[in-house]
Structure formats: structure tokens, C-alpha cells
Design a protein that fits this description.
The protein is an alpha+beta fold. Helices cover 66% and strands 9% of the residues. It has a five-stranded mixed sheet, with helices on one face.
């Protein structure tokens, strides 16, 4: 058999299936041949009973009886379901005893059809044992049968016939075994070839994604970094010229959008390069980063038994929570915010709710951040969730704003 690796547990499913089919094919072949073993037992018993001397309790008859019982017991053991599970040493011992019983029957009954008993031992040796061991044991049984047949007074033609019978049975067993193993090796090699092709395709896709990622990084990083520098200059100029608050707010908003775009571009490049994407399991890190870096008063609560979600659904929830917290930092500074991750039986939900102090529920009419921006954050969240079969609800509450994100997972 062809081995894929030293550790069978590391084989691909395709190769494992090929090996499973090989084992099934071997078991099926043994099931087909098992009735032939029982037929050989019946033929040998019938020919032994009809020959002279027959089985009995006196003289040579005792030897015939013992040899016949040993042959029947060993062949019945060899055709049993559990016999292939034994080690090669134990199998060789049983087959050797079978061959010895067949040789004894041929010596005690020179005019019977007992050569078939020794031939059955040769078949079993070649079919069940490794090639070298099987051939050696089969040759030993054949040679012993020739000597026993010759010493019993049989003609040279009878000796030759016994030899040819054993050789023919051994060759048939070898060719059947070789044919099955050749088919097994072919299927495993084909499975390994398919694995290699898939791996080559994956490697080519990874290389192409890496090339695209490099291009995106070079183009977007250069463009967005340049835009960020220009906006910093515009902010300084606006302050120097004492521009209106709406103008300064628009510049600040544009700077934030460029910064977010640069961050998202880096994340997209990382995804193209095969880097691990964030999941809902990392919401605690996200909340902590907003608490420390953005000075957002935010807490996280988890309800239900945590479980692994599909990658796309988990990423959609994470990005939705990230966008919702970003909106809190932009539009509701000072709000007390809570994030709830809830695992239901068939859905997973993330809720982000902010509560403004009573004095801040009605923002000043001149506040610029509430009027600036394209309003694409909520729409983008809704579209991302819709792609994974989820949904989003967002709207004002008595104390602030609430966003509910859920996916069927």
C-alpha cells in the first residue's frame, strides 16, 4: 500500500476514503471466497471417509482421524471473520498446521483426494501472508507433500500432479492478491494526485491574492496617506483662517473617514494574504480598545453558551459592533454604552446601546458631527448582515440609540 505520510491521521479525506474502499474491497473478496473454504472442508472430509484407511480408532485410522480433525479445525479457523485480525506469526502457525495435516492425510491415504488439503494450505499461505513468508511456507508444504506422496508408493505422475496442483493454487492466490493491491495502490495514488492538484490550485490562488494585496497596499496606502496629510494641512489652515465650525467639523470628519479607510484597507489586505479575521470571540478585545483608545464608557455582557459561528457570520457581527461603537465615539461622546452578546438556540445577537446623560439628550443646534458624513455606516452593516442571512435594527431610544445585529447561527 502507498503511504501518504507517517501519521495516518494526517491524511486527507480523499486518501482516507480510498483506503476505506480498499479495506471494504478486501473484506468483500474474503466474504466471496469463504464459502469455497467450507466447500474444500466438505470435499476433503468426504474423500477421507471414502478412502482406505478411513477415519477410526485403531492403527493408521487413528492418524487419519487426528489429521482430518486438525485440518478441519485449522481451515475453519482460517476462513473465520477474526482470523485476519491476528498477527502474521499466529496466521503462519495456523496455516503451517493446516499444511502438516494435509501432508499427513496424503501420506496415510495415497489413493485419496487429500492433496487438496495441502493445496488449501498453500493457497492460504500465499493469499494471507506477506509475499516472502507466504511463498516460503507454500514451497515447504509443496515439498513435504511431494516427499509424502513419493514415500507412500505413488507414481511419479501422481507426485507431479500434486506439485502442479499446489503451484496452480499458489499462483492463483498471488495473482488475485496482486490485482487487488494494485487497484488499491492506484486509487490511493489518484487520491494523492487530486490532493496535489488542489494544493497547487490553492498555492496559485494564495500567490495571486498576495500579488493583489501588495498592489492594493501600495496604491491605497499611498493615496490615503496623502489624503490624510492634506487634510491635516487643511485643518491647520481652517483654524488659522478661523473658518466656520461646520467647515472644521467637515474636515475632521473627512480625516476620520480617511483614517478608517486606511485601517479597513489594511484589514482587507490582511484578509487577502490569509491572515486571521476577527470574530465575535474577540469582542472583549474590541470593547477594551474602545475603552482605552477612544475613551468610550463601554461594557460587555455575554448571555448563553458560547459556540463557534460560521466565519462570515461571526465577522459580520464583529464588524457591525465595531461600526456601532465607532458611531458612539463620533456622535455620542460621554455616553454610557453597553454591548450584549447573546447566544440563542438558533440565532446569535449583538446589541449595542448607548445612554446619554439627561443634559446631553438634546445636542446643540450647531453640532457639526451629527450633520456630517454620508450615512453609509448603517447601510453597510445591513448589507453585510444580509449577505449571511442576518438582519439589523437601529433606532433611537428614550435615552440614546440602540443597534441590534443578529445572524442565524
Amino acid at each position: 500500500m502507498v503511504e501518504l505520510s507517517a501519521n495516518p491521521g494526517g491524511e486527507s479525506r480523499r486518501v482516507a476514503d480510498a483506503r476505506s474502499r480498499a479495506e471494504h474491497r478486501l473484506g468483500h473478496q474474503r466474504d466471496i471466497l469463504r464459502p469455497l473454504g467450507w466447500a474444500v472442508i466438505l470435499v476433503v472430509v468426504a474423500s477421507t471417509v471414502d478412502a482406505h484407511p478411513g477415519p477410526g480408532l485403531h492403527g493408521k485410522a487413528v492418524g487419519v482421524t487426528l489429521a482430518l480433525c486438525a485440518f478441519v479445525a485449522t481451515l475453519a479457523r482460517a476462513v473465520g471473520d477474526r482470523f485476519p485480525e491476528r498477527g502474521y506469526g499466529a496466521q503462519a502457525g495456523v496455516i503451517a498446521a493446516m499444511g502438516a495435516a494435509g501432508v499427513a492425510l496424503a501420506a496415510l491415504q495415497p489413493r485419496g483426494a487429500t492433496e487438496l488439503a495441502a493445496g488449501a494450505a498453500v493457497w492460504m499461505a500465499v493469499a494471507r501472508l506477506p509475499l516472502a513468508l507466504g511463498v516460503a511456507l507454500g514451497a515447504a508444504v509443496t515439498l513435504a507433500l511431494d516427499v509424502a506422496t513419493a514415500l507412500s508408493g505413488s507414481s511419479s505422475a501422481a507426485v507431479l500432479a500434486a506439485t502442479l496442483l499446489c503451484v496452480l493454487l499458489g499462483l492463483m492466490a498471488h495473482f488475485m492478491k496482486q490485482s487487488r493491491e494494485s487497484q488499491d495502490r492506484t486509487e490511493v495514488l489518484l487520491a494523492q494526485l487530486e490532493d496535489a492538484r488542489d494544493e497547487q490550485t490553492r498555492a496559485a490562488a494564495i500567490a495571486e491574492r498576495g500579488r493583489i494585496a501588495s498592489e492594493l497596499h501600495d496604491v491605497l496606502a499611498h493615496s490615503l496617506s496623502g489624503a490624510a496629510i492634506q487634510l491635516q494641512g487643511a485643518r491647520v489652515l481652517a483654524e488659522r483662517e478661523q473658518a466656520r465650525p461646520q467647515m472644521r467639523a467637515a474636515i475632521d470628519r473627512a480625516s476620520e473617514l480617511v483614517k478608517d479607510g486606511l485601517t479597513n484597507a489594511r484589514q482587507a489586505v490582511g484578509a487577502l494574504r490569509g491572515e486571521e479575521l476577527p470574530t465575535v470571540a474577540q469582542l472583549d478585545s474590541l470593547v477594551e480598545s474602545f475603552r482605552d483608545d477612544m475613551n468610550v464608557d463601554v461594557t460587555l455582557r455575554i448571555e448563553g453558551s458560547a459556540r463557534t459561528l460560521p466565519a462570515d457570520a461571526s465577522l459580520a457581527l464583529y464588524r457591525g459592533a465595531q461600526e456601532a461603537l465607532t458611531n458612539v465615539a463620533r456622535y455620542a461622546p460621554g455616553a454610557s454604552t453597553s454591548v450584549l452578546l447573546r447566544y440563542d438556540s438558533d440565532r446569535t445577537t449583538v446589541s449595542v446601546e448607548d445612554r446619554l446623560p439627561a443634559s446631553s439628550l438634546a445636542p446643540p443646534s450647531g453640532s457639526g458631527l451629527s450633520k456630517v458624513g454620508g450615512g453609509r455606516g448603517l447601510a453597510g452593516m445591513r448589507e453585510r448582515l444580509a449577505r449571511v442571512g442576518g438582519s439589523m435594527q437601529a433606532g433611537p431610544t428614550d435615552e440614546g440609540w440602540r443597534v441590534d445585529l443578529d445572524v442565524p447561527a
